[in-house]
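[Automated response] Your request has been received and processed.

Submitted sequence:
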Amino acid sequence: MGSGTEGTPVAAGVPSTQFTWEEVQRHCGREDKWIVIGRKVYDISQFCKRHPGGMRVIGHYAGQDATDPFNAFHIDKKLVQKYMNTLLIGELAADQPCFEPDKNKSAVEDFRELRAVVEHMGLMKPNRVFFFGMLFHILLVDVAAWLIMWYFGTTLLPFLTTTVLLCTVQAQAGWLQHDFGHLSVFSKSKWNHLAHKFVIGFLKGAPACWWNHLHFQHHAKPNCYRKDPDISMHPLLFALGKTLSVELGEQKKKYMPYNHQHKYFFLLGPPALLPLYFQWYIFYFTVKRKQWVDLAWMITYYIRIAFTYIPFLGVKWFLIMFFLIRFLESNWFVWVTQMNHIPMEIDRDKNKDWLTMQLAATCNVDQSLFNDWFTGHLNFQIEHHLFPTMPRHNYEKAAPLVKSLCAKHGVQYLSKPLLTAFADIVYSLRESGELWLDAYLHK
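Generated structure:
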């Protein structure tokens, strides 16, 4: 047992209560959550509801060492630690390791050393000219779309050209808001947050709060069932991952004909996600959570695009164009975001070390200028997941260091051609569907 009263905050300068990992791991319930950061033990049971990054993302580490995700997500750690002092209840006992005993000690220590090297090399520092260039090219394409319709009229060819250009604006703004959302551009969080609201709200018509809620969970526990919202379509729509698909079959559960999911993915996945689901859910989410500032930013987008194109097209054809843009953007978004994760390991949280967990759930796509632009540098998904606040223009510089570390520890570092990565989504869905069917019929 610990050497003091559990749950009692520790004043600065006072010898702290000491805990074993066994004690910490017991505090992982819905209303009782402890985490460890840098050997310090924090009771986040109440704080998680006020956590700026969302209740779930921090709660996913209840009973676990959260040192690496803490370092990964926060750019001003000293400021954050000031607020953490009131949550401090003790520290790990002297005979306890810095992280759970069942984790790979050398992998954890080597990754933390790699992070120090990356920071020393300046790879966490942004080139703001790059990001302003990204913003400028988005605005330039946006203006070009309007000019084409203004000059050439609303016949079929200029209509479709404008639609494709506006889809490009939406996709590229999606990658740029991702940069601001990850605090990758400015040294102060508040400036990143403000820019994030502008890009995702004014340029895209979506709420920053919704993106933060979903995306940080995905990064904290990628491909972990019930912790990563990106795989929440299991099991209602798709059977994902070998282990979970077999388990679903053994339980004789059939919400969909999963053995055909690699076919209906082309209907329910890329074409439908944005226009039939996200487009409506974002308003529900924002109003339910009373995020009125985000709602105001969103409305500016819809007012802007309506006043820009209704005079040319009228209401009917404007709505047709709008949903055609969302349809095209949805295909772009889904193929790019799923190619790095769906073919990889999908399972329940095994509480692996940061390096092993991220590499098991993530793969890269080969570097090229087109791939960099088309994916918003998410072809370097491995580096992005290991260092979420790293500016994307530095991923390629960090990649050789990450490859070397993976080789040292026998961790697979997988990179593919773009089209192969797309095809692997379909192949993995077919494989997991077949595994489900075999277990459903014969086990």
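Summary generated for your ticket: Residues 292-338 form the longest helix (47 residues). Residues 300 and 397 are 38 Å apart (CA to CA).
If you did not submit this request, please reply to this message.
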